[in-house]
Amino acid sequence: MARDSDKRNFALRTEDGEEVSVFSGSTPRQAALKAARDLDDPGSSEDAADREPIRLREKGTTKVHVYEGWAWKESPPDVDMDEWDADSPDDVWMNQVDEITKANVSKQGVEHLDEI
Fold first, then answer.
1. What is the number of structural domains in the chain?
2. Domain that holds residue 19
3. What is the pLDDT of residues 31-76, one digit of tens each?
4. What's the CA gap between 13 and 62, in Å, rounded?
């Protein structure tokens, strides 16, 4: 697992260049997946999900990573409480929600801004 010092910050940019939020990750793709899960209207399945452009500027640089992202809702996987390991409580919360949001991204390229 990456330490916090390995995290980088990426600003989500709108069409007009305004930076509206920041996502962190050790790679641009990791930040883009987080941004994709925040898309306004996730589809009912991966195939039905609308593809939307995601533009992330790496903080402290002029590099803009451009992705096509999509998100969809689906039922969480079943967690068998009889086989649940008390040392891994990460999956227990899934029994308490009806839907989870999943996302995927496809890198389109990298652009460089003239200035920040």
1. 1
2. 4-112
3. 999 999 999 889 999 999 999 999 999 999 999 999 999 999 998 8
4. 12
